[in-house]
Amino acid sequence: MKTFALRSGRPLISFRHGLGLALAGALVLGAAFSGAGCGTMPYEAPPDGVWDDLGEPGEGLAAALRGGRWGYVKLGGALAVLPQFAEALPFSEGRAAVRLTERWGYVDRAGKYLVKPRFAEARSYSDGLAAVKTGEGWGYLDLAGEFAVEPGYDEALPFSEGLAAVRLGSRWGYIRKDGSVAVRFALKAAGRFSG
Asked: Tens of pLDDT along 62-87?
């Protein structure tokens, strides 16, 4: 067993059932799978045992920063994807949005591009679609990396329960996965749908 710490020297605390938790700027990973309590999982850390930073976990992986580049580690600590990205979002629906230089794309759990970097901004997949920004505005990609909803919105939030909040000008509305309007653009503010 190894103790894991961020470069700041703050130790990571283990929690039951593999939960991750951001605490005082440090990400807490791991746990005992004995079902009886808390413990520390074995961790395959970098040579000096320290990562510069850790991101929010998603689907058993967490983004890990080393030497100015992000990669991914398994919640048990094993390296999953070598640090190579300028930014890395949590995994969702088997994909993670990553920025290599100035453009965002999506990689699988092995770090292989599923969607090559070509977007100004990108968000995590939710409900089978991911919001991405192009020169024409925000739109939504399907799991195959094709546009399900063409770009054209000024802002786009993640889908939830089949609806997503989008903004045109100063007004918000909600759209369905096919791009049809579910709630007209008359709202001053909107959030992720939960109904």
From this structure: 999 999 999 999 988 889 999 999 99
Burial of 57 (0-12, 13-18, 19+ CB in 10 A): buried
DSSP 45: -
Calpha distance 9→40 (Å, rounded): 17
pTM of the model: 0.77
Query: 21 forms bridges with which residues in the sheet?
Result: 28
Question: What is the DSSP annotation of 126-193?
Answer: BTTBEEEEETTEEEEE-TTSSEEEEEEESEEPPPBTTEEEEEETTEEEEEETTS-EEEEEEES-----
Residue found under tokens 């979002």: 89
Chain centroid offset of residue 120 CA: 16
Predicted local confidence at residue 143, as pLDDT: 97
- Residue 56 sits at the vertex; the CA angle it makes with 54 and 61, to the nearest 5 degrees, is 85
Residue type, 190: A
**pLDDT at 45 exceeding the cut of 60:** no
**Cβ-based neighbour number of residue 183 at 10 Å:** 16
Candidates 79, 81, 30, 25; CA nearest to 55 is 25
- Tell me the per-residue pLDDT of 156-170, one tens digit each, with 9 for 90 and over: 999 999 999 999 999
